[in-house]
Amino acid sequence: MERTFVMLKPDAVQRGLIGEIIGRFEKRGLKIIAMKMLHVPQSLAEKHYAVHKERPFYPGLIKYITSGPVVAMVLEGPNAIQAARNTMGATNPVDATPGTIRADLGMEIGRNLVHGSDGPETAAFEIGLWFGTELQSWQRDLDRWILE
């Protein structure tokens, strides 16, 4: 089993898309093992996006992600990172494949609704940053119908 971090950004929350977006991950077969809604503090935003600190879009990104509530969650499943990223679609919604979250619900890269970890190291860092290390999985009865 693999874990990944996913965040529904302020635009997803403000547009009332929380249920639809979470539903897509669940329909895919990914299991939610942690979830919370919060206003992102400046310090957390800066740690989360530290890799972009030298980029020109960094100040706007920090201002945006702290502008309203987000939903942060940890998803679990086989190849969870790639499964979640494929469900989200390309970063730029106009390049995303129809049927993905970003293609179906987004218009611009600056309002692309969701963030997802891009690899195992990033997932471990982001999960630890947002949720700590004491996460418990749980047995989902229908997993036998989703997973071999």
What keywords describe this structure?
148 residues, alpha+beta, four-stranded antiparallel sheet, 8 helices, 41% helix
Task: Describe the structure in your own words.
This protein has 148 residues and is an alpha+beta fold. It has a single domain, classed as Alpha-Beta Plaits (2-Layer Sandwich). The chain is built from eight helices and four strands. It is globular and about 45 Å long.
Number of strands: 4
Secondary structural class: alpha+beta
**Biggest sheet, spatial arrangement of strands:** 2-3-1-4
CATH-level-4 superfamily name: Nucleoside diphosphate kinase-like domain
Low-confidence stretches: none
Could you say which overall geometry the principal axes of the C-alpha atoms support?
globular
What's the end-to-end separation, in Å?
A: 12 Å
Number of helices: 8
The whole-number mean of residue pLDDT values reads 96
SSE string: EHHEHHEHHEHH
Q: Per CATH, what is the topology?
A: Alpha-Beta Plaits
CATH architecture: 2-Layer Sandwich
Strand percentage, roughly? 15-25%
Query: Sheet with the most strands?
Result: 4 strands, antiparallel
Question: SSE layout and pairings?
Answer:
Elements: E1 2-8, H1 10-14, H2 18-28, E2 31-39, H3 42-48, H4 58-65, E3 69-77, H5 80-88, H6 101-105, E4 114-116, H7 120-131, H8 143-146
Antiparallel strand pairs: 1-3, 1-4, 2-3
Task: Give a quick precis of the structure.
The protein is an alpha+beta fold.
